[in-house]
Amino acid sequence: MDDWATPQETSERLSYDHTTKRWTLDLGCLFAAIPSLRCRRVEARRKFERIWGRVSSDGTWQGDALAMLLLADGLGKTTDLPVSESATRLDVIASRPLSPKELCGVLEISKQERLRWTKDGRLKQSGTLTLNAAQQLTVPTYFALWVNNFLRNGRKVDHWRKTDANEANGSMP
Fold first, then answer.
1. Phi/psi of residue 161, each to 5°?
2. pTM for this one?
3. CA nearest to 141, candidates 157, 152, 125, 153
4. CA-closest candidate to residue 32, choices 100, 106, 110, 104
5. Which of 38, 65, 155, 165 is the most buried (most CB within 10 A)?
6. Distance between CA atoms of 98 and 108, rounded to whole angstroms?
7. What string of pLDDT tens digits covers the 173 residues of the chain?
8. CA gap 70, 140 in Å, rounded
């Protein structure tokens, strides 16, 4: 796995409430830390419901945390598989290339900024996706890990905006 959720990190987000006898798996920290996962929150939650539904008698979402009654007592072999499988599924979801719409949402940029910064090489494309609807449409995709590292390393979009504004002002007579 790349830089995403490991089985250990996933199990660390699993807590037990002795009064209600419910286990809670909190995804909020992962959504906050991994931008590509945050923009695919609905898909990640749906995967968790399917995976953990096999070992839980019920499950309810409380914000970004799934609270459930496990069918087995304690954290034994019954939950080892879902923890590992959950981390693997999250990795697949988080690693998938971002669409232009997802990229704009994660970086909080406009479509025009995305087009300009892709053209001048500041945004790195991972490839293209060809869709066959009424006609063939080719859409660029962007590396999810690159975007995650870009945001982690403090490289700010605001700096690019200031640079572009200075260039525009400097080129005016």
1. -65, -40
2. 0.77
3. 125
4. 106
5. 38
6. 14
7. 444 555 555 556 677 777 877 778 788 888 888 899 999 999 998 988 888 877 776 778 888 888 877 655 555 555 555 777 888 888 999 999 999 999 999 999 999 999 999 999 999 899 998 988 788 989 999 999 999 888 887 778 888 999 899 988 875 54
8. 42
**Strands across the sheet containing 56-62:** 14-17, 22-26, 65-70, 56-62
Q: Report the distance separating Cα 95 and Cα 89, nearest Å.
A: 10
Could you tell me the two tokens for 156? 């700010």
**Tokens linked to 29:** 């920290």
DSSP per-residue letters across 111-150: HHHHHHHHHTTSSPEEEEEEEESSSEEEEEEE-HHHHHHH
Residues 6 or more apart whose Cβ sits within 8 Å of residue 116: 164
Q: Residue 102's closest CA among 155, 30, 36, 4?
A: 36
Closest CA to 100 of 88, 86, 117: 117
Could you tell me if 37 and 31 are in contact, meaning their C-beta atoms sit under 8 angstroms apart?
yes
**Identity at 165, one-letter amino acid code:** A
Q: Are the C-beta atoms of 30 and 37 separated by less than 8 Å?
A: yes
| Residue 27 structure tokens | 């995804």
